[in-house]
Amino acid sequence: MAEYKHKRILLKLSGEALTNKDGFGIDPKILKSISKQITELHDDGREIAIVVGGGNFFRGIAASARGMERATGDYIGMLATIMNSLALQGALEEEGVYTRVQSAINMHEIAEAYIRRRAIRHLEKGRVVIFAAGTGNPYFSTDTAAALRALEIGAEVILKATKVDGIYDSDPMINPDAKMFKKLKYIEVLNKELRVMDATAISLCKDNDLPIVIFNLGVPGNIKKVLQGVDIGTIVEGGDNGS
Predict the structure, then answer these.
(1) Distance from C-alpha of 49 to C-alpha of 123, rounded to nearest angstrom
(2) CB–CB of 200/144 below 8 Å?
(3) Could you tell me which residues come within 8 angstroms of residue 168 by beta carbon, excluding any fewer than 6 positions away?
(4) Rounded alpha-carbon distances, angstroms, from residue 166 to 28, 218, 225
(5) How many whole angstroms separate alpha carbon 133 and alpha carbon 145?
(6) d(Cα 174, Cα 10) in Å, to the nearest integer?
(7) Where are the beta strands (DSSP E) in 135-211?
(8) How far is 223 from 162, CA to CA, in rounded Å?
(9) How many CB atoms lie within 10 A of CB 6?
(10) Range with the lowest mean pLDDT among 8-22, 29-43, 50-64?
(11) Are 210 and 155 contacting, i.e. CB atoms less than 8 angstroms apart?
(12) Is residue 158's pLDDT more than 60?
């Protein structure tokens, strides 16, 4: 069996991670690729929890900017995360991985209600747990939900999957000379206003010394490499800045 740095992890996926260049809906090929990577880790004995966003269907903050009441927009966004969670559950179970969706909004017909102890028990029994509907509250992002759930279940690290290789000092899609950081302190992310996770999520991780690794999900096998300690992506923790 491969050597890993962490046993219990929380994987944060954006809704956009499930879609193609169009940026809307779910691409079955991408969904299958992600589920296969997760399955490989699961089969190697990792305990895996997942928080997935809903931006491929709806963004509450964007709708608010167009005049919709913010709370209403955020609730719609939470429902979008339910759709993504169910799709990911289906893909994982096609790979033979027992999976549970726990929702912060009660939907008994399609998902369990979020119960911390039950979630931990699922992980101990080798099931993947997908946390849906964010925190169940408006004004809180799925990044914050990821940090909160990771702390509640005792995850050892948050893996934040993105479409770029790590955290840069500017947008690498626009600036070809953008510099990538290999290591950052939590406080540096906050002070530099680096848009990797929102400030509430970073602060939660900082206060509880929970490391975050930001990496490129588009490269097959990167999730496994991160957990094996391969030098890819950017790590955010309390240590010295190694950039």
Answers:
(1) 8
(2) yes
(3) 175, 178, 179, 180, 181
(4) 25, 12, 14
(5) 9
(6) 30
(7) 157-162, 167-168, 180-181, 183-185
(8) 11
(9) 17
(10) 50-64
(11) yes
(12) yes
Q: Could you tell me the residue ranges of all domains in the chain?
A: 8-237
H or E, element range at 117: helix 116-124
Residue 209 tokens read as: 């010394």
- For domain 8-237, the CATH architecture is 3-Layer(aba) Sandwich (3.40)
**CA 29, CA 18: separation in Å to the nearest integer?**
9
Type of residue found at 80:
A
Give me the phi and psi of 77, to 5 degrees please.
Answer: -60, -35
Instruction: Using alpha carbons, select from 39, 212, 215, 52 the residue that is nearest to residue 128.
Output: 39
Q: Which residue has the tokens 């119960």?
A: 115
Is the separation of the CB atoms in 213 and 235 below 8 Å? yes
User: What one-character DSSP code corresponds to residue 16?
Assistant: G
CA distance readout (Å), 19 to 3, 34, 48, 196: 31, 11, 22, 19
Q: Are 120 and 154 in contact (CB under 8 A)?
A: yes
13: buried, middle or exposed (CB in 10 Å: 19+, 13-18, 0-12)?
A: buried
d(CA 224, CA 237): 20
Is this structure's pTM higher than 0.90? Answer: yes
- From the CB of residue 67, how many other CB atoms can be counted at a distance below 10 Å? 7
**pLDDT tens digits along 65-124:** 788 999 999 999 999 999 999 999 999 999 999 999 999 999 999 999 999 999 999 999
Coil vs helix vs strand at 232: coil
